[in-house]
Amino acid sequence: GGGAYGAAKAGGAFDLVRFVQQPQVLARIVSAVFALIVFACLVGDGYTSVAEDPQLFCVFNHNADACRYGIGIGVLAFLACIFFFMVDVYFPQISNTTDRKYLVLADLGFSGLWTFLWFIGFCFLTNQWSWTRADEVYIEADSARAAITFSFFSIFSWGLLLTFAY
């Protein structure tokens, strides 16, 4: 029911099955998986080298900023999902309405910011990928495309988290 910032009463027993079935928890898990995929693809296959030069370069048009941006927002999104997942676990135990308010506002603000940052990341990675020469990437192309794809999906998963926080 109603109550202060999404919970009627503080306290009560923790029910794992009921908790995991909550839409915001499912959206948070999906967002964490998407973030994990993006930064894992970029860390694993985001950098490559050619036989003539052992120097590593980013597969996105040799732009190291593209790889760093994708890895950065992916890692921070994953860590934030873990943090807010723990907040979701302990939220029913918090009886102070001021604390609840600040946690909900933090979730709302962070979800809004990360929705925007994923949009920027998708546009940036897509733009850099469009300028990448096909003869410079081989196996890494699949990971680069996966990072772009899951950056796109992350826009919607974080937008969903924004909606649930609102």
UniProtKB/TrEMBL annotation:
Record membrane topology: Multi-pass membrane protein
Keywords in alphabetical order: Membrane, Transmembrane, Transmembrane helix
First-listed, main subcellular location of the protein, grouped into a coarse class: membrane
GO CC aspect terms: neuromuscular junction; synaptic vesicle membrane
Domain MARVEL as annotated: residue spans: 19-166
Pfam families for this protein: MARVEL
Transmembrane segments: 25-49, 69-91, 103-127, 147-165
Compartment(s) where it occurs, according to its Swiss-Prot or TrEMBL record: Membrane
Family under the similarity heading: Belongs to the synaptogyrin family.
Record's protein name: SNG2 protein
Organism listed in the record: Myiagra hebetior
